[in-house]
Amino acid sequence: MAFNLPDDAGSATDDAHLQQTLDEALRLWGFERAGEPEPIADSVNNANFKVPTDHGNRFVRIHRRSRSRERLELEQRIIAWIGPRGIPVNPPLPSNDGRTLRSVGGRFVSVYPWLDVRTFRVPGLDQNAAAMLGGLLGRLQSTLVHLDDPALTTCPIARPWDTEASIEALSRVDDLIRYYPSPGEWRLEVQRTLRYKLGLLESAEARPYTLFDDLPHQPCHGDFHERNVLLDSEGRLVAVTDWEMAGRMPRLFELVQSLTWLHLLDQPDEMESYLGAYAENAPIGAAHIPRAVDMWWQASLHNTWAFTEVFVRGDRSAGRFFAENDRHLRRFADPAFRTDLAERIARFAG
After folding, report:
1. Contact at 8 Å (CB) between 288 and 216?
2. Phi and psi based region of residue 36 (left: phi greater than 0; alpha: psi -120 to 50; beta: remaining)
3. DSSP 26-89
4. Which stretches of the chain score pLDDT less than 50?
5. What is this structure's pTM?
6. What sign has the CA pseudo-torsion 42, 46, 47, 51?
7. How far apart are CA 339 and CA 350, in angstroms?
8. What share of the chain is helix, strand, coil (3-state, %, to 5)?
9. What does DSSP assign to residue 225?
10. Which domains does the chain have, with CATH numbers?
């Protein structure tokens, strides 16, 4: 399916306001802009930029409006906590008054050192890359289990879902597409996958969160995928980034999530390398595996984020996930697939 969104260019007014925001922010950190800001292509939730300054390049993040100060401060506390415990990170720089989070023009901004790095690309991880990432996720979870921060709540993607609320959200988007004067092929493609999901939610396939809420939770990264693992030119780990989704969730839920996001479900040999390295760093409890797989399936089924972001909030960047999410949803809808996946993970249980 083709889910490409139209590419609407920003206005000159938007560009001028952006540069003003960046300039004001940089001055709070004692920098002056020395060239044109370069947007980071893979940014989804925030506006991220590589900005040349009189002190070299800097990574500037303009946080999305929905992120509260408390949540952003929690993210930065986690970075400060885990760095000394053997997980490489890229901590935010202090501004002129020592704070690492500042408000500029009604938006929170943070500034980081610029790292000349690369990331893995998926699909297509080889076995060495898969083993590195699997071992890293195991290390992350084994380290984070000791994090004790009272502000840490359930990770957004693992929060209790409400079937009726999901149906209502998708039905609203369905109406928006249906009454669009000239929807175009991309909206019609999105509508087809939306209606497939709606059909499942309105059937006996939908299960309540209460079936899974007794699975043991622990602090997790929450957004573990290849774009958040930074490497040097030799392929060595430089930093784990983007901790804004960190929260409490079942360990094996995050494991299944990572297998899905890294496209390892299509690569059996690489998935075995990933699971083997993961199990060396974080034990896999066989008893929880089937329910963790089913919980991921139900969380994915009830997740309406991309549809709401694009059609209600107007954030085009989320549209890149429609095709991928649809493919994964159709696969996990097959009970035989879920059973097979649970059995494959169980081979590495301790």
Report:
1. yes
2. beta
3. HHHTT--B-S--EE-TT--SSEEEEEEEBTEEEEEEE--TT--HHHHHHHHHHHHHHGGGT---
4. 1-13
5. 0.93
6. negative
7. 19
8. 50, 10, 35
9. S
10. 12-113 (3.30.200.20), 127-163+187-346 (3.90.1200.10)
